[in-house]
Amino acid sequence: MKKTAKILVMALAAAAAMASGQVQQKVGWSTGYYAGWAQSSYPPSKINWKSYTHMCHFSITPDGGGGGVKMDMGLSDQSCKAFVAEAHKNNVKAIICVGGAGTGGNFQTVSGNAGTRATYIKNIIAFMQKYGYDGVDMDWEEIGGKEANYQLLHKELRTELDKISPRPILTVAMANYIANACGPIHSVFDQMNNMTYWTPASKLGNDFSALISKGVPKTKMGVGIGFDYEEGNPEIDCSPEAVKSKCDYALANGYGGVMVWAIEKDFKKYKAEPSHDMLYKYVPLPGSVGLLAGPSFRGAAQEMLSMTISGNASMNQAVICYLVPSAAAVSGSFISLGLYGTDGRAVKTLVSGKSKPGSYAITLGQGGNAMRPGTYIVKLSAGSSVQAARTLILE
């Protein structure tokens, strides 16, 4: 049976480039934002789903100070149902966005005490589950000196989401200027997407500097692509050239993925979708972005070990590339790389022993590494504390 590698959660471009003959390098994720107000002219059935792995539905907002939530930005019962149905039909993760620019004051209020936070979190999760969303995206932009409350809200939300199976995704829209709030709790997020809508790829370094200084791994962050050329401060990325530049930047600099705000503006500007056509070239195959197989593979310092899995276009093989850095926590450690079933059982050991710092590649499908079709967890560890894991599907 033909084997095709469909993959993954986060990509490291430098390691991926080692695999000769592989398809064009792909970003780890492509997350879009679809606002409720766009649905009349750009219904869910019209979305360019093939260009995305995740789609955030914008948005629900805090309803006063008691911890309630309300549909906002044009959302309705009917539109939420239609959005989730279309996303799932197209193998895209549907995520409900909470907040948005201008809602920071309400966030500050509901996060101010433990009881209200708990109520708010309960209501967010109830909304997510009612409509069948796959996760939550948080968009609290005006912090107002409430960094401690910001961190408590997101950590407590992550704790509650982790009680649900399958484990929901938690993403966040953020920027360099809120690094003090989101940076110290980067481990609670699956994606941290930077709103770099007004910065060309050639000048993006400064937009990530504070986040990196707070210890946020590049592999956790997405590069923001802004399509909203009509707003008062026009965003600059609604063109194939700009999309290519930012995707190339993400790959060349080891960022986890890309994010697009105002997906409907591409069609509005061109009466076609050339920016999406370019984005599609960088997007993993449908259904390839999975979750880790349970909390036992979470919480590790993923910035210490990096791993990506890709397909070999000419030989229908899966290529596992991994990077062992020279960091003291890893260098000289006992490196273990193995395949596990989704039930946690060991299936095959690929590497076991001390490894010098460097880049390595293992090809499944060659010699003793032939595998049956199925779903596997690829687990990479150094010693007992540093781990990374990815989902691999072979068909």
Largest sheet: 8 strands, parallel, barrel
Q: List the domain count as a whole number.
A: 2
State the low-pLDDT regions, or none: 1-23, 287-304, 312-316
How big a fraction of the residues is strand? 25-35%
CATH architecture of the largest domain: Alpha-Beta Barrel
If helices are DSSP runs of H or I spanning 4 or more residues, what is the number of helices?
10
In the CATH scheme, what's the topology name of the largest domain? TIM Barrel
Brief digest:
Helices cover about 25% and strands about 30% of the residues.
Question: Mind explaining what this structure looks like?
Answer:
It is a single chain. By secondary structure, the protein is α/β, with parallel strands linked by helices. The chain has two domains: 27-280, Glycosidases (TIM Barrel, Alpha-Beta Barrel); 295-394, Immunoglobulin-like, CATH 2.60.40. Helix content is 23%, strand content 28%. The strands form three sheets. Strands 2-3-5-6-7-8-9-10 form an eight-stranded parallel β-barrel, surrounded by five helices. The N and C termini lie close together (7 Å).
